[in-house]
Amino acid sequence: MGPRTDTILLRLLNDRTLFSEDDMNYFFKRALDDKNMKIIRLLYLNGFDVHDARLDNGKSAVHYLAKVDEPGDRYKVNNEVTLKLIKFFLSNAYKIHCDVLGYTYLHAACMVGDVTTVRWFAIRGVNVNLKVYKHSPLHIAAQYRNEEIVKALLKSGANPNLRDYQRSTALHALTWVRLCRCVRRDSFCSRRKPVDKIVEALVEQGADIEARNNHGDTPLQLAVSRFDVELTRSLLGHGASTKNLTRTECSAGSSSRAN
Known about the structure:
Distance between the termini: 40 Å
Shape: elongated
Helix content: 40-55%
Strand content: under 5%
Low-confidence stretches: 71-78, 183-190, 251-258
InterPro entries: Ankyrin_rpt, Ankyrin_rpt-contain_sf
Largest sheet: none
ANK repeats: 133-165, 215-247
Keywords: ANK repeat, Repeat
Number of helices: 14
Pfam family, one: Ank_2
């Protein structure tokens, strides 16, 4: 679409005799599904509230794009485009925006590695130990292995031993399925980000390396069960005990949920 087409679309969108609020919400959701940045920008320029619009189950746009509540989903997605879309919403926001499920723009910033937004929220007094969502911002930063974000949160007072809804800590979160920059969202991505400095930062701030979640698993048990050699090596290097490992955990997968 060129400038002339954009102008025509803007005029059409401005005509409320043609399109109701429900219509606008439909266009917005369709644009998100299609990862259509141009339409999303046009809606934003037209005054549509892209931040407070609510989608499936009351999710915000960034929550909807993150797909964080669908761990079993294996559909193909262009993750680079998804991350760019989320960053677009963050760059045009001036408050934390919490949706019905408790997912905030701070959670989204931790996911995409937007350290500028994380620091902006922290400087303005946002509680980095938010408990409104099932995972804390630190859990999400660790899950996506965003080292700079983890360190920024810890510097701002994030609790490395804060438990989520399954009593997992940020060290457990390092084992979770994450949206990567590959073609597919997959549990066993060969392009995993380095993890040792994240483990080091968490442990230095007092993270309990032997913490157990609701399933009785330690971070090491989960790392081994998911064949994550680098994380296993890092946890062992920082003193994790092997005494609770079983033959089953070393040869098969843990029964614990990913997140």
